[in-house]
Amino acid sequence: MVALGRCRGLERQQTVTRAADDGGANNFLTARYAARWDRHVNGSNDMSGVLSAAMADLSANFATPTDLSSVLEAVTAHAVEFIDEVHLADVLLVDEDQYRSVAPTEDLATELDTLQLDIGEGPCLSAAGGEAMIVSSDLTAEPRWPRFAAAARQRGIYSIMSFQLYTFPAQVRGGTGGRGALNLFSRNPYQFTNEEQAVGAMLATQAATALIAANRQKQFESALASRDILGQAKGILMERFKIDAVRAFNLMAKYSQETNTKVRILAQHIVDSA
């Protein structure tokens, strides 16, 4: 009732506050990957058949309704299948301060992510934090993350590739948020070839596409729900104060500004107190 009462007091005021639209385009990494592979892949070992098979299978996940976890599980499974020296894989998602391992092919992949979070260093964190690609061919001689390298070796992991998946603006309403990395682990010291790195990057692109699509769907669903609540709140104000839709929204916008309350939250309060 407080929100309704305040709107009554503002009904005669003419100031119109326009709500700011939270913008920010998704920073998708396809172009960055493409440029990197154009420079490094010389085509001496043709893996086009491998890539075609992997991409065709992954694309089938987008052709029919499926959840995000199924797509990411296909990505990590294909990484192990198509890159000989990759023995386990997972996706690390970062949403604000929340980290989670998704689609691990083995529990050890999740353990390795957790280990990096605990000690505050590692290739997966670096990739999720903004580096497009990280390769470590031998963790017995890795100066970048000495504590992680030692702990990984104790668990039988000796080389790693990590790929940044996507970046989103902070606090995307209704989305899965933050950052992510596709992480590929090997039990042997191994110098991944340019072609194998390209396969990893293509799989990372598929994972990124799935994550972006999932975020957009959640944002769309959230926007529909918000629009419905706003419509109900406007209708309540129009009926209560005998005003039109424009005046009703202006009242909510004015009260939102004066109380530093989001219009969507204010609208929910009006509906709940009606």
TrEMBL record:
Repeat recorded as keyword: no
Pfam family membership, one: ANTAR
Record-annotated ANTAR domain positions: 210-271
Lineage: Bacteria, Bacillati, Actinomycetota, Actinomycetes, Mycobacteriales
Gene Ontology MF: a single term: kinase activity
Native organism: Mycolicibacterium chlorophenolicum
Gene3D superfamilies, A to Z: 3.30.450.40, Winged helix-like DNA-binding domain superfamily/Winged helix DNA-binding domain
Name under which the protein is recorded: ANTAR domain protein
Coiled-coil features, chain-numbered ranges: none
